[in-house]
Amino acid sequence: MVSFECDYIAGAHPEIIKRLAETNMESLPGYGMDHYTESAKDKIRKSCACPEAQVELLVGGTQTNAVVISTMLKDWEGVIAADSGHVSVHESGAIEYSGHKVLALPGKEGKLEASAVRAYIQKFYSDMTHDHMVFPGMVYISHPTEPGTLYSKKELEELSLVCREYGIPLYLDGARLGYGLMSRESDLTIEDIARLTDVFYIGGTKVGALCGEAVVFTRGNRPEHFLTSVKRRGALLAKGRLLGIQFDTLFTDDLYFRISRHAIDMAEKLKEIIREKGWEFYMDSPTNQQLMIMDEEQMETLGRKVLFDRWGIYDEKHTIVRLATSWSTSEEDLEVLREI
Amino acid sequence: MVSFECDYIAGAHPEIIKRLAETNMESLPGYGMDHYTESAKDKIRKSCACPEAQVELLVGGTQTNAVVISTMLKDWEGVIAADSGHVSVHESGAIEYSGHKVLALPGKEGKLEASAVRAYIQKFYSDMTHDHMVFPGMVYISHPTEPGTLYSKKELEELSLVCREYGIPLYLDGARLGYGLMSRESDLTIEDIARLTDVFYIGGTKVGALCGEAVVFTRGNRPEHFLTSVKRRGALLAKGRLLGIQFDTLFTDDLYFRISRHAIDMAEKLKEIIREKGWEFYMDSPTNQQLMIMDEEQMETLGRKVLFDRWGIYDEKHTIVRLATSWSTSEEDLEVLREI
Amino acid sequence: MVSFECDYIAGAHPEIIKRLAETNMESLPGYGMDHYTESAKDKIRKSCACPEAQVELLVGGTQTNAVVISTMLKDWEGVIAADSGHVSVHESGAIEYSGHKVLALPGKEGKLEASAVRAYIQKFYSDMTHDHMVFPGMVYISHPTEPGTLYSKKELEELSLVCREYGIPLYLDGARLGYGLMSRESDLTIEDIARLTDVFYIGGTKVGALCGEAVVFTRGNRPEHFLTSVKRRGALLAKGRLLGIQFDTLFTDDLYFRISRHAIDMAEKLKEIIREKGWEFYMDSPTNQQLMIMDEEQMETLGRKVLFDRWGIYDEKHTIVRLATSWSTSEEDLEVLREI
Amino acid sequence: MVSFECDYIAGAHPEIIKRLAETNMESLPGYGMDHYTESAKDKIRKSCACPEAQVELLVGGTQTNAVVISTMLKDWEGVIAADSGHVSVHESGAIEYSGHKVLALPGKEGKLEASAVRAYIQKFYSDMTHDHMVFPGMVYISHPTEPGTLYSKKELEELSLVCREYGIPLYLDGARLGYGLMSRESDLTIEDIARLTDVFYIGGTKVGALCGEAVVFTRGNRPEHFLTSVKRRGALLAKGRLLGIQFDTLFTDDLYFRISRHAIDMAEKLKEIIREKGWEFYMDSPTNQQLMIMDEEQMETLGRKVLFDRWGIYDEKHTIVRLATSWSTSEEDLEVLREI
Q1: The pLDDT value given to residue A284
Q2: Residue C320 contacts by C-beta under 8 Å, 6 or more apart in sequence?
Q3: Which chain A residues have a beta carbon less than 8 Å from that of D241?
């Protein structure tokens, strides 16, 4: 049985395991004060060409979204997101748990359009009763989006412009950032993202780490007393080394980007196989997740050899099936699929 | 200048002021333990033909929604509401402040359809990832709705059925309940509402009181230690008599229903005037709020004699204008309008 | 039966009822935008000799504490209070409901000492792990305190100094402010309080109003978008006139201070009666609440003619009994007591 | 330089690193649905002799306390803890962030006495105003306590009895549980703890793991929809295997207990060295943390060879110094200390 269920089925990239083992008996201070964490932050700043960035390491994606959004929003504000956004749908209400509303706008293939955001904010401020409403205080996007689509540089520039126009931060959830940046269709670099957003995170969990997400505050805008706010949300890891060593490894010799490219190469081959098999794509995705429309019979056949994800319901007889590649996908895995 | 701006422009019904004055120097216990509050609760139970109901008096509408919803939802649940629902839009995120998500579904003229609710819940439970989502834990409707429409008995029965099918409470926000019940198009009585919902509130603020809303838990389902939960939300009034005396008065000799009927009679005359003037209705409303589409010139003319509410934006050149009647609207007020 | 149970047993001062009746049919805008509210705010600013103060009217005391504290604290901060403080003990955890900790310090007869506050803050900042603790972000005091004691001008100046030294606001809960200011032992004026605190509230509920507390932000420090934050906490009153008219009346011709002085005069006579009867004082109080130590027999005797409050447990055989006077206490009430 | 700063200076026990490496490329489902997590839970249940226990793995201690306490408390409840308890002092207000109050009682050498808990609860219920207070809804203890003391079986039985008497859960924070259980003065086994508490957690972070705490609900009392509540608090780890493999390893062949015993053996030798050196103990601790009173000169000498923790301020000239052993402390480390 081979798994294409998601991009977090394997442990960590072997280089990470090796580094964890090598450094294991070193005495290091806790709470991210260790030199590996410092080094990881430096490397990330360099990678982003953003020397003034403040980098913070957290454990997981939902946690990161909740911490970043709730510490950056003001009391009377909510966060704009696409209606398919992770924070809108798949975080069990973690943003609301922090007391803030997700202002969901209809997305287009998972993406938020700058024009829709501008229209929403304009309408908000022209509404005579807006003092009785939730103020738009941040824009959240995921890149790649949940269904695997990508913002173009132009689209991101437009979103950035709207946000600056209204003085609210643009936050990019990069749970799968590597797979987005290495996509053959991407015209965005990590420097672009650092330049165009106010805060974003570089996903580790889905891109080679056991756990960990690196938040980048791109303009010295990390919330005051951030460590205390992280602690109070139960999100401060005692052995910060676990995160520091992983990101230090991922940002040494471009490992993060190299393994992301591998996942994309595998995804491109996966797309070829899907085409060969005549399976129907649900939507065109340039990243590591491929969505197909399948009936029960097709899923039964597929399921004999392969673990996959029932991503959503298409219609009464069809399901949206997701196959995901990752840094750990091998040619052999694809071979199993090809031979179904 | 005559005001049709909203239904809370005047103080209280004169009978209430009289009763407040008459009882003013009586020594009464605080926090709703006084005999006027007891009497008000009894009268409301009788009016609802619901002897087992638990009635609680709170100060305002948003407060009531936040208290009721947050004490009835479980940790992992959110509340389903129409996207135009008061809790969705006009409470500055009060539900989210309590930690819970409003699950907004597209409404139809402000109403939530039972079929849409059922479809949403079915889809939720058939979603493989629903443990990562917010569970639907309550259905919120307003009656009359925000734009002034009404649920029919059949529609309410259907909603009630869905809720019971899934074991979640149906909550009816009756900020303007009197105006709904007394509408000429209503086929619902307050007994029906008590029978078909799990909890609802009888709005006082907009129907003759200075302040106050009476929450009716229709089946002994008042949350445990409710007083403490109310206190902890800053919603416990020290001089509960202020609410008790008002509701006792409103539910003596059907005052609540009589003054509501008056507002409806005034609204019907208002509709005639609108028709006579050739103003365009935005939508047909059988209750005390009438919505019209007006351009700037029309609004300028109107505004010379009358205060009105700019309810929403219709298009670049037109505004949705609201004229509301209430228990305090007089024939003279209408005359001013007629003579514009 | 005569009641000395608490200071909110009667309705409102008759002048307030009269004004509510007189203004009842006026059309006024909602949410505190009416001219009575404006006038009340002006009069309060004048009374405080604080022209730059921002005044906001809220409904009740716990609500006011929760709104003020939670909108002024930063995410990582808590509020210092005496361990007997209302926010520490008797608000069902309303501050914690807003996500913030009450940092309780031992009080002295209900009062917080400047030296204790300074020591606490110094210790906090000298603690190497203070980033893992709750930062002291505000000092809360009540005046009069819960057991009825008063801060002297010197004590308040010292507290003010500590707060300014550490850059945190000093907040004074004046639920019974009038009774404190009019006490024969008080050397503080309302101008002093406006000068020495950063925010305080003038209690209406216990001093002549049906409901209502007036918050005074003394240095242009009202939190941004305060109305929206109030709304989102369910604390925005639709008919703001109810609060505006009451405070406008209370601050016309010094009514607030005159009725407070009356309550103090009654309390002084009450103290004489207590001395005559040989009842034991629990502590010396210069304000409207008198605490005595009584056994069951004494309470039985007292209870035949008078309603009183069992304020606390003294020891296995004795109870702390509270008798409170207020603006509504009459000579006749005292006579009943004297004749027991 | 040798570190005795705390018990989380090293990575994980080498056996854990080995197992992480060996299992690294296995495809496993996420969110704790993997077979290692299942196996870990089974082994923990067996170790506790508590077959009906529900075991859940979380990432860190503060997170675990916040999740357990906030999902088990009812809306109107708070948690009783010693005033020195971790939840009272060192979690940046994480419990309050969840909306609940920590009801701090004076502890005795870090321990909560059953008599104090009973007295507090009795007083609470005899207080006429307790509906305006926070209900005691849980008792929190840490074992070992923050300063390193231990509950005896008798003390734990008494606490258990009080909790059952009042129907509230007893929760034991076992961040350093292994070191407590293996202490030479302990008369408690893990079975005793499972029998006497309602919920407790077995600390991994400080006892051999990179991260991870295992919560044990001892009587089928895991809160409903726990996974969703965990997710909504940002505490659900995608690669649950990281926790599963670690606890599976720790509970294989008693590794958890063996390495804990080693730490205690090292601590006993440490105590001998302290005695030899004539350093003054701050308090007698039977576990892995030793507290001493030192002046600046002593600390300077110590600090030349050894990293230590400034645990607290003793007086103006003296500091409370903590030296901690752990599973990773070696004889060589002690030798460095001996030779100072």
Answers
A1: 87
A2: C282, C291, C292, C293, C310, C311, C312, C313, C314
A3: 11
